[in-house]
Amino acid sequence: MTNAALTGRPARLWVRKNLFRTPLDAVLTVVFGSLSLYVLARLALFVFVNARWEIIERNLKLLLVGRWPADQLDVLVTSVVVLSLWGGVIAGIVAGRQIRKGTSVIAGMTPTQRLSDLGRRFGLVLGTSLLLLLLTNSSGPWLMAGLMLVGGVAGTWSGRRIGVRFLSPIVARAGILIMAAVPIATYAYMVSAVPLAQWEGFIFNLSAAAAGIILSFPLGVVLALGRRSKLKLLKMVSVVYIEFVRGSPLYVLLLLANVSLEFFVPASIAPSKVIRAMVTFTIFTAAYLAEIVRGGLQSVPRGQEEAAKALGLTPAKQMRLIVLPQALRNVIPAQIGQFISLFKDTTLAGLALGIFDLLAGAGVITQQDDFRGQGLIIEALVFVGFLFWVGSFTMSRESQRLERRLGVGTR
Amino acid sequence: MTPPIPKSRTPFYRNVRFISWSFQLVVFAVVAAFVYWLFGNYQRNTASSGIPTNFTFLGSPASFDIPGADFEPTESVRNAYVIGVLNTLRVSIVGIILATILGILIGIGRLSKNWLVRKLSTIYVEVLRNLPLLVIITFTFLGVVLQVLPRIEDSWTPLGIMVVSNRGIGVPWYSGTSGLSLIVVFFVGVIGWWLLARWRHLVADRTGQPARAFWFGGVFFLAALVVGWIVLGGRIILPMVDGKRIAGGIRVDPSYFAVLIALVIYTASHIAEIVRGSIQAVPVGQGEAASALALSGFQRMWNVVLPQAMRIAIPPLGNQYLNLIKNSSLGAGFAYFELTQVTQVTVGNGSPAVPAFTLALTFYVVLSLITSAFVNVANRRFKLVER
Amino acid sequence: MSDTNQSVYADATKAVGEAILELQHVDKFFGTFQALRDINLNVGRQEVVVVIGPSGSGKSTMIRCINRLEEHDGGRIIVDGIELSEDVKNIQEVRRETGMVFQQFNLFPHLTVLDNVTLAPRQVRRMPKSEAEALGMQLLEQVRIPEQAKKYPGQLSGGQQQRVAIARSLAMKPKVMLFDEPTSALDPEMIGEVLDTMKDLARGGMTMIVVTHEMGFAREVADRVVFMADGQIVEVGTPEHFFTSPREDRTKLFLSQIL
User: Hey, is the C-beta of C32 within 8 angstroms of any chain A C-beta?
Assistant: First the structure.
């Protein structure tokens, strides 16, 4: 609703104020208006009439999971369902805590408001999933999606009912350990079924980004602490690492890893391409995370550390109990930003290392016998670009939302 | 009298200085050991497979072609590197200029009072920013340049002065003058611009009339270029299709074109966000004070808001420029012979990988250190004076 | 509308001498919230009007409407014969006639004190540099800080900054000066110097509308005092009338709270 509607002014006035305020405005409106109408028409014509989406339909499985062995698909389904249950539990715990602390935004909403809020936030992802499901011609994916939905909802439901603070410390710690172990165990389960070298398609992009951000996190924190340290040698090592990596293009590092990683490890280890990519992502992302964490450390007021010192905490405890929790909380949005950036950058691995990722898949399917030389690369790229876009856009929206919330919380 | 405090000797393991030094020595030793291990592996592995670890490969013949460059396969790898660096700079500098212009326009568009302009700018930013750059380059290269642009046989020739085809884009260009006299003309233009601008400012100070130094200087500069070119007996060479290639004028390589366009539209979306954020970060009161003094919209922007927004925008802008330079390495995937592609090809031709890539990485790192130094200097200059 | 309100209007529209500023039935909305309700006020030449009232009563909104920092939604605002309308030319003309001093000074931090003062005369009035600087120095002397001319705002105290802001507004030779809580952001020891500058200005015959909480200033300098609450003008009168025998209960309550 616009202001005009609220103050009961006619819509014509709105148009005049917002589209034809000055002569220049009018010209801009007409030029860009007709241009965007033209582009929109061309786009609609392409998407709904001219595009030959059968190239995507026929290769959907190849693009998403690569050549994941057919007899191991149940492993994939199980893992994904477990992960959605896990994610649901975490979301539930967070939501439950917010409700108890009275900081929940959702709690004050009516069911319809809640639904429209969820729709605004995740409608794009849900819609895209539905689109993918409609493109498939087998029942397996539908089953998986159904199970994921059930898992997610059940997880959220139970998560909300876990009152972390009412548990005894031992049970709570065990719970945290289990929660941390679930994704690792799932990962191990998947790797044991299908070796990493065969992780292809969108699975590669998603898993490499997740693994990269998780593995680089401890290294990033250590580097950030090193850079802030008063100990000169430590500081020097950290600064050299961070500046060198941040000055290097990721693509060149990946190429280097492709042709020379084997020189730096004993000949007995022969890292696969996927491993090389992950090692590079970890090395690369750690430097950026270090800078983000350093920003977070700087955002914690000096008085906090001084107060901790005055209470007689040891330096390690000052860091672990007082400074780091505040610093890491402040930088969650920036960390999500780094994750989005890595998610997009996983496509570089396809080009540099010859890994069959989602984008490389787009090129490959246009070379198939049925589709070769028909100029279908645009269809393929639009599909691939759309998947990446939905992921990044949704995550960046969520991170902005979180940023606003954190801002409200600190004041 | 209180008895003197007995002088206790702190045991060395409780001494703050000792703890901190021993801690960092341990960490340093671990890091050093790890690096030593990597380096040892490297020496052992290269020795066992007979791969050289020095830079002598730079002197040997490159034995590959660089399209669009005056380069013979018999020339040394060193010369190929030079061309690679120049090509990296070529795409980066042009890209930075174009991305800045586009980014500023879109960033201001996002704050426009015109609803349509605002929405379109937002859509541009949200779409481009959330796509992987590699998807965009693949699109401009495979989708636009190789597919939409016509084959050389039936190339487009808009107004008869350009040639557009998937073999490259021909643009009219100067001809008939030597490089040196061109440079002289250029500098005459620049100096004239500067003098004219100074003079206009003096006039403005004396009479109060608007300086319009940019217009006076710019017109003089262009006039100087045209006159100089005529005096030096230059002509314009129009590009023409000559069999399977474009002759005359300047030929823009298709991969250069695709990489440049992708870098520009992608980076512009990030610059637009920086521009918008910086303008919004200037306190509202500043604009209000300017309005209350009856400054016009343009005067308010130019004299009050932009100078303050600039100060906020400089560090992130420097970061984006750096990103663009580093991202230009993706040109290697699309047959654009910039530094990374040269490195990759020469490694493929048998040059040792680690030294060759070390060279390329050194260039990027040095360039990024220089850029951050510039940003720091600019930051200091624009810093507000406080007490 | 009640009878008492009617009589208030009669008071409010009666200016001392010829009116230079007229507000007639002005309304202002922020979304659905009505910030100003049917404001009527005339201000005569050389008159000093002090506006008081609880926070959120619309005092600042009212004077911000006078130079179009806020757009009014109903009624008319006429400054020295020029009506504020959609016409950009009128808006610019009104802004040239009115100077404004803000609570937060809003000096331009990237310009020197002198450049702050000369910016508008040079850009808007197209005054030659030497002339603008002479004027600027003269105004800085008038507010008693000529020695700070080459410094930057960040190097000055709050009181000095506010005096520079006054000089900056005077440089446009305005016919009306608007003051939006000019002393509220100042440390107590600096309030006096700013109020003294304003008193000088009033003695010199400047037309002023001052939103302030400084009751001493109102008593000493004001020709009329306007009391606002909930976006309305509740009571208008001379300082003596106002501080000794206010008529409205809202006014009495407010005065009892702050005095």
Answer: yes
Q: DSSP secondary structure string, A48-109? A: III--THHHHHHHHHHHHTT--GGGHHHHHHHHHHHHHHHHHHHHHHHHHHHHHT--SGGGS
- The 10s digit of each residue's pLDDT in A44-103 is 999 888 888 888 888 888 899 888 888 888 899 899 999 999 998 888 888 887 777 777
Q: A153: burial class by Cβ within 10 Å (0-12, 13-18, 19+)?
A: middle
Does B284 reach chain C within 8 Å, measured CB to CB?
A: no
- Residue B310: C-alpha distances to residues B76, B280, B376 (Å): 44, 12, 14
Helices (H), C102-151: 113-124, 129-142
Identify all chain C residues contacting B296, using CB atoms and an 8 Å cutoff.
92, 124
Residue A395, classified by CB atoms within 10 Å of its CB into exposed (0-12), middle (13-18) or buried (19+), is middle
Of residues B208, B210, B387, nearest to C155 (C-beta): B387
Please judge whether B307 and C106 are an interchain contact, meaning their C-beta atoms are less than 8 angstroms apart: no
Question: What are A82-96's pLDDT values in tens digits?
Answer: 999 999 888 888 888
Give the Cα separation of A242 and C73 in Å (integer). 56
Give yes or no for residue C207 having a pLDDT over 80: yes
| Contact yes or no for C198/C177 (Cβ under 8 A) | no
Stated as kind and residue range, the H or E segment containing C39 is strand C33-44
Divide the 387 residues of chain B into consecutive groups of 10 and give the mean pLDDT of each group: 64 76 84 91 86 84 80 87 92 94 94 92 95 95 83 75 78 67 84 91 85 86 84 72 71 88 96 94 94 91 91 90 94 92 91 91 92 86 72
Question: Which of A38, A227, A260, A371 would you mutate first to test chain B, the one with the most B CBs within 10 A?
Answer: A260
Residues 6+ positions from C128 with CB-CB distance below 8 Å: B205, B206, B207, B208
Stated pTM of the model: 0.86
Please, are residues A323 and A311 in contact by the beta-carbon 8 Å criterion? no
B with C: how many residue pairs have Cβ under 8 Å apart? 92
Does the CB of B292 have a partner CB in chain C at under 8 Å?
A: yes
Residue A3 in contact with partner chain C when CB distance is under 8 A:
yes
pLDDT at C149: 94
Quote the minimal CA–CA distance from A306 to chain C in Å: 29
Nearest Cα of chain C lies from the Cα of A3 at a distance, in angstroms, of 6
Contact B99, B259 (CB under 8 A): no
Among candidates A305, A303, A294, A302, which has minimal Cα distance to A327?
A: A294
Phi, psi of A318 (to 5 degrees): -55, -45
Distance from CA of C204 to the nearest CA of B (A): 21
Residues of C near B (CB-CB distance < 8 A)? 67-69, 92, 95-96, 98-100, 102, 104, 106-110, 119-120, 122-132, 151-152, 154-156, 165, 168-169, 172
Instruction: Supply C194's token pair.
Output: 């700013």
**Joined tokens for residue A329:** 């909380």
pLDDT tens profile C55-75: 889 999 999 999 999 989 989
Q: Do B294 and C124 touch (CB under 8 A)?
A: yes
Q: CA of B306, closest CA in chain C: separation in Å?
A: 11
CA–CA distance, B128 with B99 (Å, rounded to integer): 13
